[in-house]
Amino acid sequence: MSTSTSKTPRYYLALAAGKTAAAALKIARRNGGQVPGTVAEAICPDFLARTPKPERVVFVTGTNGKTTTSNLLDDILLACGFDLVTNRAGGNIITGIESSLIKDARMSGAPRRQVACMELDELSSRRVLPYMTPDVMLVANLYRDNFTRNANPDYIFSVIDANIPASTHLILNADDLISCRLAPQATHRTYFSIGHLEDDLEGPEGIVCDLTACPECGGALEYDWCHLRHLGRARCVACGFKNPEPDYLVTEVNKDDHEFTMRELCHAVDGEAPEYTYHIATYSITNLYNLVSALVTARELGVSAEQLQDVLADGKVNVTAARFSEETVEGLRLVNTASKGENSTATSTALATICREPGSKVVGLMLADYYLATNPKKTEFTGWYYQADFEYLADPAVKQVVVQGANSDDLLLRLLMAGIDADTIFMAETEREAADLVELEGIDGVFCAYDIFNGDQAQAFRERVAERIRERVGVCGA
After folding, report:
1. Measured between alpha carbons, how far is 129 from 127 in angstroms, rounded to an integer?
2. Could you read off the pLDDT of 371-417 as tens digits, one per residue?
3. What gap in Å lies between CA 8 and CA 391, rounded to an integer?
4. What is the pLDDT of residues 304-352, one digit of tens each?
5. Element (H, E) at 42
6. 428 has which bridge partners?
7. Cα separation of 195 and 173, whole Å?
8. Beta strand ranges found along 74-220 (DSSP E)
């Protein structure tokens, strides 16, 4: 259950103003996701503390993938019959959460829906968790994040760790030796893990590692395997610290059949743990982690494994829909994969995913934050480029790199330092120009890595590439 205090005239005025703002935005066909909460807070600064909460609250947080995972969990629960209030249209900071609660509230403040499933920004946990206690909280992972905001994972850890209530049921990634240690005061804990896979690495990857030593004693870590960045199976040679035993374990992945099998060790009877096979639309290790964490959370909320199998089997719930999209035009793959502004881990993972795809390719980079680029009062700090693994692109299969965005010159320098042949790098002012620079001969696909705020530009890039492919085929056919 979530905390609340008495409702004052100021609270009711704030609620009414917030609802009026929400209604006005709807009439104007504008999102303005945080506006109702901002208006309410301006009138009643402790609005979140005073407003009634749904009976059950689920939060999803973590550095990378929380939006995808939260949306995926929402879709799963809705498909399983849950009546949810979410913050998809509100935002993951306190005013976005307040906005979602305002839209769901009756004029008395009472919530219409009794289950909330919401994404929570890591740093916002210090403002939200004291007044909205989650029954269940999924922490997917902890890496370094936005370079200028919370680049140090130890800092992110400390903020979340100090604010998680002891009564919260934590769902944690056993493969992450950083986040799995969170909030020992919360004793109800469920761990998920992915077992050894054939394409695992021997140790952490990347020019920057967030886990260089044992988080308990500072001793050396010895890895059995590593799935992604620092996520894997390891132990400290000094103090013996190691991954916690998982309650849910992925035991097998079949990429060809788009399936994986998960063993539920927490539901073992007489030593026999049940296993269930689930569909995954497009496999990558990040997609697998996102889907597994959402499924485990749904299971802990009481959804049966059979229900989850049915929901995923019909293809209506897609782990990749928000951040990964693909189409094939005249035999050429056109793939757009989202990254995250000023986030070296997300960008490195996107580039690694692209370079592991088969065939020769052109890679488009649209990584400059669109909103910062159009704001005359702000400038994106490009220092994060030097923590991202652009070295992946120094691959013979990458025939061309096309760069578009406000910080193209800064990125050009980083690409040259990464060992990428200058003759393969092309610079563009606009997304259309970038598409027109793509050399279509002798390649199997065109991949675009884009900042999450550049989705429209990435789509325009792909549409123009597709148009050129069809024009070329038409000319050749004639």
Report:
1. 6
2. 777 777 777 888 899 999 999 999 999 999 999 998 899 999 999 99
3. 58
4. 999 999 999 987 787 665 577 889 999 999 999 888 778 888 899 899 9
5. helix 35-43
6. 404
7. 12
8. 84-85, 115-119, 136-139, 169-173, 189-194
CB 269: neighbour CB atoms within 10 A?
A: 7
Can you tell me the distance from the alpha carbon of 421 to that of 299, in angstroms, rounded to the nearest whole number?
A: 49
Give the contacts of 14 (CB within 8 A, at least 6 positions apart). 39, 40, 41, 42, 43, 44, 47
Cα–Cα distances in angstroms (integers) from residue 180 to residues 72, 135, 214, in the given order: 22, 18, 13
Please report how the helices 94-104 and 9-27 are oriented relative to each other, as an axis angle in degrees rounded to 10: 90
Residue 24's SS3 state is helix
* Calpha distance 453→303 (Å, rounded): 34
Q: Which residue has the tokens 């992604």?
A: 228
Over the range 232-263, which residues count as b (16 or more CB within 10 Å of their CB) and which as e? Answer: bbbbbeeeebbbeebbbbbeebeeeeeebebb
Spatial strand order in the sheet of 332-338: 324-329, 332-338, 445-450, 361-366, 398-404, 425-428
Q: Which two tokens stand for residue 428?
A: 């563009």
Each residue of 164-185: pLDDT tens digit? 999 999 999 999 999 999 999 9
